[in-house]
Amino acid sequence: MRSRRVRIGAVLATAGLLLAACGGSAKLSSTKSGSTSLTNLSVALALDPPKMIFIDLYVAKYEGFFARNGLNVTLEPELGGIQSARAVAAGNAYFDAGGTDAVASSAESGSGLTGVFNYGKDDLSLISQGSITSVSQLRGKTIAIGNSTGPAYQLSAIALEAAHIPLSAVHFVILAGGRPELISALVSGRAAASAFHIDDGLTALQDDHSLHILEPMYKDAPNYWYSTVAAPRKFVNAHPATVERFVLAMLETNRWMYTHKAQVVSIGVKYTGEPQSIVSKSYDFLATNHLWPENVGVTPAQILYTEHVFLSSHTLKTIAPPSKVFDFRFIDEALKKLGRVSG
Predict the structure, then answer these.
(1) Which end of the chain is more exposed for a tag (fewer CB within 10 A), N or C?
(2) What is the rounded distance in angstroms from the CA atom of residue 273 to the CA atom of residue 325?
(3) By residue range, what is the domain housing residue 299?
(4) What is the pTM of this model?
(5) Which residues lie closer than 8 Å to 87 by C-beta, 6 or more apart?
C-alpha cells in the first residue's frame, strides 16, 4: 500500500511540474451568442459520469448561469482526479474540479495550482456487508477504495482512527473499476467495506439489501476539505476578471439549486445516468445537509487540517500555507456582490 501511495504521489508531482511549465500560457478565446461575446472555458471533472455532488457545474451551464456571466463553459468528465489534474497540466482544460489532494501536492511542489471555488462538501458514506455493523469490526478486514490519495482513502483512515484502529490493522485494496467492481467486492466478501458517493451508495443499497450504511463520513470529519475547482496560478493571475465571473456564476448556481429541486433533478438524471428516484433522494441528502456551499465553503483552518491528513498518509511531505493552496480573492468578491447566506 505504501508503494502505491508513493507512485500515485509521483503522478501528482509530475502533473504539478507540467503545470509549472505550461499553466496559464494558453490564450482565452471567445465565441458569439447573438450579440454577446462569451469567453470560452473548459473544466475537467474528476468523475465520468459525474456524481450529484458535481451537478452544480452542470446546472450552471444548462440553466444559463455561466452564459449570464459572459462564459461559454465546456465540461469534460475524466475517469478520476489524477486524470483531471493531468488534463489541466496538458493544457486541455483551464479548471480542474476534483479532490483536494492534487491541489495540495501542486502547492507543495511550487507549480502554482490553486483552488478558487468549492463545488461541494463531503457526501461519502462507508458501506458494508451485512455481517459488519460498526467500524470497530473492520479490524483485520479489507476496505476497497478507488485510489490511494483521494477522499475515500483519507476519510476511511479518519473513521478508523476514531474507532481506535491503526491503519496497519486493516488492508486497503485498490479497485479502479468504479461502482460495479466495488459492489462486487462487497457482495462477494472480498471486501468488508467501501466508500461511496451518495448516488452510488443509494444504488448499491437498492441493488443488494445485504448492504447497509456503516458510517456517514461527512459526520466523522466536518473539517475535511473535500473538493475544489482549481486552476494554474499563472492563469488565475493573468485572467482575474474571468475567474471572478466563473466563481460568481457558481455561487449563484449553488444558491438557486436549493429552491429548484425539479430542475436540478432533471439535469441530474440526464448527466449522471442514474434513475430519477436515486437522483431525487441524492438531491434531498445534499440539500438537507447543505453540501453545496452557499458562501466560502472552506476556511484556512480546514485547509491546514486536511493537509495534515495528507501528511500522515504520505500524500504530502510538507505543509503549505493555506494562501498558497486556495485563492480566497474571488469568492470574497462574489460575496461582496451577492451577500452572505446566514445559517
Answers:
(1) C
(2) 33
(3) 2-121+224-338
(4) 0.88
(5) 44, 76, 78, 93, 96
